[in-house]
Amino acid sequence: MTQRSAHDGPEDDVPEWVDQVQATVAREVRRRRKELGMSAQHLADACADLGHPIPRNVIANMESGRRSTLPLVDVLVLAAALETPPVLLLYPLGHADEVQKLPLTDPVSTWEALHWFTGEAGDAFGMDEMLRNFRAHQHHQAAALTAERDADYARWQARTANTPEKREDAQRDAEYYASKATHHRDRLHNARAFIREDGGTPPLLAPELADVDSPDTDPEEGHTA
Fold it and tell me: Where are the beta strands (DSSP E) in the chain?
């Protein structure tokens, strides 16, 4: 971990930070490769199979610190070949307690840095509205599907109940889940409308929710999906 002293200036910190980021990725590539039981040649072959060859000697030089650059495209392909999210090569949760997000800054927890990188942090940068609405879309679509399936199951329980009490309980459950499904459908409709308002294209809907794009529901005021 690079730590700046009181005598270091900005010109001292930036190259050290770049080296630190590259060293972190190289260390994680080596750790993950060994965890998977892959040789450097096996990893090189996997990268080639993905359409972006990274020769074995380049991987060896990177892991030993002899490689002076680390292109982003290499990080992406290495991550895919190692079956790990690219962000975990940069911010190895569980394997590094702290990282330095940017030059001229103090180290922060790896978890905090990862949240900043993925846009989830509630810091001074805030969260991009498009990202917020895509995340809302993902959440409400999954929740609506789950609620609708739970409602269907409760209706089946009501139809097959062998006592009036069980039938009533199942009917109440069906109404509850149906209400939840309606709530999440409305929020999903709003998220899709907000994405379009901001010039984006919403993700594909699950077939069961194809009618969510019906124009019957107007989006709520403000981006609050």
Answer: 98-99, 108-109
8 Å CB contact between 73 and 80: no
Calpha distance 188→17 (Å, rounded): 42
pLDDT, tens digit, 9 for 90 and up, residues 104-113 = 999 999 999 9
Give the type of residue at 15.
P
Distances (CA, A) of 96 to 17, 30, 67, 101, 163: 16, 14, 22, 13, 58
Place of tokens 């991009």: 128
What six digits make up the tokens of 129?
């509205």
Supply 218's token pair: 């107007």
Tens-place pLDDT, residues 119-131: 876 554 556 888 8
Task: Record the tokens describing residue 141, joined without a space.
Answer: 């679509």
pLDDT value for 123: 52
In the structure, how many helices (H) and strands (E) does the chain have?
A: 8, 2
Q: What is the 3-state secondary structure (H, E, C) of 146-201?
A: HHHHHHHHHHHHHHHCCCHHHHHHHHHHHHHHHHHHHHHHHHHHHHHHHHHHCCCC
Residues 21/28, Cβ–Cβ less than 8 Å: no
CB 98 within 8 A of CB 110: yes
Does 201 have pLDDT greater than 80? Answer: yes
Token representation of residue 187:
């929020």
Per the rule left: phi > 0, alpha: psi between -120 and 50, beta: everything else, 137 is alpha
Mean pLDDT across 152-178:
96
Amino acid at 115: H
